[in-house]
Amino acid sequence: MDNVKETVLSILNDLTGEDFSDRLDENLYDSALLDSMGTVQLLLDLQDKLGVNAPISEFNRSEWNTPAKIIAKAEALK
Amino acid sequence: MKWYIPYGNPTYFILLAVALIPLMLGLLYGRRFRWYQTLISLFFLILTFGGPNWRTGISLVCYFIYQVALVSAYFHYRRRKDSPNKGWVFVLAVILAILPLVIVKVTPAIEAGRQSIIGFLGISYITFKVVQTIMETRDGYIKDYHPVVFSQFLLFFPTISSGPIDRYRRFVSDYEKVPAQKDYLNLVQTGVRYVFLGFLYKFILAYYFGSILMPRVQFGALMAHGFSWYIVGYMYAYSMDLFFDFAGYSLFAVGISYLMGIKTPMNFNQPFKSKNIKDFWNRWHMTLSFWFRDYIFMRLVFFLMKHKVFKSRITTANVCYIVNMLIMGFWHGETWFYILYGLLHGCALVVNDTWLRYKKKHQERIPHNKFTELLAIFITFNFVCFTFLIFSGFLNTLFFEPGKLR
């Protein structure tokens, strides 16, 4: 479980250059840290590193907008 | 017999107000009268597509049967046990879905302006809904599909002519439930406010810019033969007319949806105060630009990055911006000014990203304050108005076909 969390946080760190380990509920879209490009990269990295197959339709800005939610989704889809 | 453009005149609004009362009373007391909603939907569709327009009505019916059959067939293919989910079946389904629209868009270009007989008011907007449903079915995200509910979604009459473009899953979740009384009262309050704001936008402001100011500057520009300040005047008058007319229409469509307990998404969010072009597309005709973002841009980016077509992420993004906006241009129509409009916006998105990267890199040296923000808004606004001038086709009429001006 913690493995998923660490991987997601490291992906987000690579994408945004920020460490979210103590800001799990920050909205990534409101702060403009993640855009459409970043989102696609995120989905591809989740596929590569965790084997999580999340199609773009599954991706929904209101359900995937904080690190905590992304971790929860990744764990559920794994 | 007459026919009515949706929200076009007072009679339409009076009919709407009367027809909605039973539905609204039902919703207030926790019931959604689906048969009644279907009945008034048919009535308002006949108002628009009947009478002297009956030919387009027949086109609509044929188109509608075709699309429901297509989506139902694709859904059954995908929901079958061990569905092979072949890429070519998906591509074929999408091609079949957009084929009628393509014919309608291409016909005037190859037949000297003649309109295709299979066209009808709002065909684009139904096509967007169909394609979206097919794509989400492919991804396995639409699990409950019912042809009747899907028909309600496609033919939802408040948004039939020009959107906003709703999403199937979102629509169904509203359609299948009744909001709590407190929430519904809030919806009604907001809905009524939107409709009245729509009156201000469409029948006062758009009327002033479109029917009073625009003909004057148009006449001036024509008399000046060639470049004149009148063209600049036309640019602003047209841009204001375009905004207030479309935003006014959208407010009606959203407001009426709210009265029916359906939270159709908003289409505009103060677009003229955008700080850059990306910000603009997050505020202007939002349901269209989000449709393009989710079903063209992101999917193309995903595809190109997955297959590592370009080495750099930046190149991938730039190519996708241009392709995305060009498709939007072609969607508007096969004329040089629509296509140029799309191309300009694609390039603007590329320039915008490049500038933002540069700015981030040289943060210490580039000032950021109230004044630079105002400057950014000013530049964005004027660029947008300039692209609207191209989009209007006025330059085409002025320089290439002056005889066509009334």
From TrEMBL, chain A:
User: Where does it reside?
Assistant: Cytoplasm
Molecular functions (GO terms): D-alanyl carrier activity; ligase activity
SUPFAM superfamilies attached to this UniProt entry: ACP-like
Which segments constitute the Carrier domain?
1-78
What biological-process GO terms show up in the record? cell wall organization; lipoteichoic acid biosynthetic process
Asked if Ligase is a keyword of the record, the answer is yes
User: Which keywords label this protein?
Assistant: Cell wall biogenesis/degradation, Cytoplasm, Ligase, Phosphopantetheine, Phosphoprotein
Task: Return the GO cellular component terms, semicolon-separated.
Answer: cytoplasm
| Pathway terms, separated by semicolons | Cell wall biogenesis; lipoteichoic acid biosynthesis
User: Cross-referenced Pfam families, in alphabetical order?
Assistant: PP-binding
Q: Which domain of life is it from?
A: Bacteria
PTM per Swiss-Prot/TrEMBL: 4'-phosphopantetheine is transferred from CoA to a specific serine of apo-DCP.
Q: Does the keyword Hydrolase apply?
A: no
Q: Which family does it belong to?
A: Belongs to the DltC family.
The name this protein goes by in its record: D-alanyl carrier protein
What gene is this protein translated from? dltC
UniProtKB/TrEMBL annotation, chain B:
One GO molecular function term? acyltransferase activity
Question: Keyword Membrane: yes or no?
Answer: yes
- Keywords assigned by UniProt, alphabetized: Acyltransferase, Cell membrane, Membrane, Transferase, Transmembrane, Transmembrane helix
Principal place of residence: membrane
Which pathway features in its UniProt record?
Cell wall biogenesis; lipoteichoic acid biosynthesis
- Which EC class, in a word? transferase
> Where is this gene product found?
Cell membrane
* GO CC term (a single one): plasma membrane
Query: How is this protein situated with respect to the membrane?
Result: Multi-pass membrane protein
Might you give the EC number(s) for this enzyme? 2.3.1.-
Per the record, the domain of life is: Bacteria
Q: Which GO terms describe its biological process?
A: lipoteichoic acid biosynthetic process
A Pfam family: MBOAT
Does the record carry Transmembrane as a key word? yes
Please give the start and end residues of each transmembrane region.
12-30, 35-52, 58-77, 89-110, 191-210, 217-236, 242-261, 314-331, 337-355, 375-400
Tell me the protein family, please: Belongs to the membrane-bound acyltransferase family.
Known function: O-acyltransferase that catalyzes D-alanylation of both teichoic acid and lipoteichoic acid (LTA). D-alanylation of LTA plays an important role in modulating the properties of the cell wall in Gram-positive bacteria, influencing the net charge of the cell wall. Catalyzes D-alanylation from DltC carrier protein.
Report the NCBIfam families cross-referenced here: LTA_dltB
What is the recorded name of this protein?
Answer: Teichoic acid D-alanyltransferase
Protein source organism? Lentilactobacillus farraginis DSM 18382 = JCM 14108
